[in-house]
Amino acid sequence: QDEEKWDFVLVSDIHEVGSQKEIKRKKFLDELSKKGFIIKKIEDKKLFYGVRAPKQIFKKYQWLLRNPDSRWQNPDARQEVPVTTRIRIVNFILQNTVTPDLEKLHDLMKKNVFEASFPLHEKEEVREFLKEKWARWRSIFHHQPIEKIRCYFGEKVALYFAWLGWYTQLLGIAAVAGFVVFVSGITIFNSSQVSKEICEANTTIMCPLCDQNCPFWYLSDTCTYAKVTHMIDNEATVVFAMFMAIWATVFLELWKRNRATVVTNWDLYGWDEEQEELALELINNLQHEPRQYQHSYFRSAIILILVLVMIAVMIGIAHALVIYRVVATALFSQSHSEFLREQANTVAVMTGAVLHYITIVIMTKVNRRVALFLCDLEKPRTFTQREKNFTMKIFTFQFFTHFSSLIYIAFFLGRINGHPGNYVRIAGKWRLEECHPSGCITDLFIQMAIIMLLKQTISNVMEYLIPCIAHKLRKKQQRPKKRSMVLGEEEEAEDPCKRQWLNNYRLNEVNIFSLFDEFLEMVIQYSFTTIFVAAFPLAPLLAFINNVFEIHLDAIKMMRLYRRMVPRKANDIGIWLQVLEAVGILAVIRNGLVIAITSDFIPLQVYKYTYSPCMTKNSSGVDCSTGYINHSLSIFRIEDFEPHTRAEALPNFNSTQNKEYRDYRNADDYSYTVQFWHIFAARLAFLILFEHVALCVKLIAAWYIPDVPQSVKNQILDTKHTNLRKEL
Prior knowledge:
The chain has 728 residues and is of the alpha+beta class. Helix content is 63%, strand content 6%. A 4-stranded antiparallel beta sheet has the order 2-3-1-4, sandwiched between helices. A two-stranded antiparallel sheet has the order 5-7. A two-stranded parallel ribbon has the order 6-13.
């Protein structure tokens, strides 16, 4: 039975005898035969070549990478090589076997000499266990069998699921905290003094929100919106933002401990990836010379310039979305449809969000191409180095693709648009959009909610449905032909391998990016969960619900819908850890900025402790924020409007009366008031204080929680001591 186990299957079209492709295929298979590989051919609609490596290759591997304590053992009394290691070694040799024409398997697949190469899903005990106990929806709340995943998919995949499980567990804590903050916001929905004042301001007339056909309006019209704003924008949000900064640090520190325990149990704590790669190169070709480390400052400068150009393009796309919203609002407000006129701003924002989602989908594909091109320019020494470089570039590009629009809404929207009578305009015609009169934080909340819900639901549904439908279609297409072959050539149909190989071939293709894509999706989600959490406290809850399904969705895909991944050996999650740490620091900075700049928290605190009734006279029974709204409005004279502004009048409208807008400006020359500079100084002071305190707390948490548990250190110490004693 063991003789019938095949390490890999190569699939090829049936080429004409004597054709160029057929000759190239034969040359490649001959090279494998020279290395002692056994090759079995099965013919169907395609040609299938089963490949099995000679035992000698695995003995060399074991000898070269033996454990220090195996030096006293008899070399022949060594254990069998695990299946995952077999597949890894065979894959390395297949990828690095060179034909006389100096072509590798990668080149031959580009030229359609071979169509596919994959290891097989075997009917073994581990697989049946994983299919029944892990890759099923009913086991959604069960503990993950990490050890079994490692035995079947290798360490890299096992560490991904260990990390995802750990992240989801700790997200549960953040989700509960976020939910409590949100619920506490709902409880003060009607009791906030600020929103009460807005709801009662039915005599305060505000400036129109666009140039043409927009009416003057009463501040009380935004009553509901104001209540929603103060549901999000309150003191609890500041505490929650600080909590999330500490949470991000504790999560990573505890993950480092968890990872150290796991890899020590796997005997991989001190594993040397470079030594492993050199050993595989020598097993494949004894004459191999290692590529030397190289660094070119010129090449690095070119790559840096190209990365900056790419980032500039993404910022340009964010600007294009801003221009779209501005122009769309102006056009919709002049539309013949009454609904479009009334809801011009909402329709512009919603269509803008859809456009943003489309740009994310398109730019993801572009980003990948560009990142691969830049990696080729860099000429990395090893596959691992290439993967690290690619990860850094694609994450940077994806980060700007996802967040440049949110950064604009959070920090620039409504702050660079001028004031009534002197608006900043695009092409001198369309005035820049403003925040909602109740504040900018609700705009950010809505945008975050739309993107997170859309991205998580649509991407998860597509992630499952596309491979599922593709798998069913492939099965359907290939079934009729298979039956005719069975009837026509009975002796071939009896081959036990044929059905297994065909079933594996019909599964969806995996590539080196399959696991990378899962990591990238989760790290982008982690960024959403931490970076703008001050504006969207429900982000951790949405992420938690998504991840509970994501773990089992990935499990079902890997076990049932995709071909078997080539196992990769690893003792950590690689460069992703540095990326997560960078996101943690960015989260502190961005949340500080959201509270200081986007939210009304600082202006309200300045008012309470400087200008409020509590400070000016003894009024113990009065709420300190009484009068804040009136204090935050500025007066505008209607005669100062620009000539082409045409606003609709309100009933009982007095055209000589002064109107109001949200800002801190003088009534005579519209320059900034003393209060504006006071609030500006308070914003800067809060930002510096918040960031320093949060970063200090992060550093203390990182110092307080050791990366490696003492039990792991003691275990390594005991092993070293035992080995040295045996040597003596």
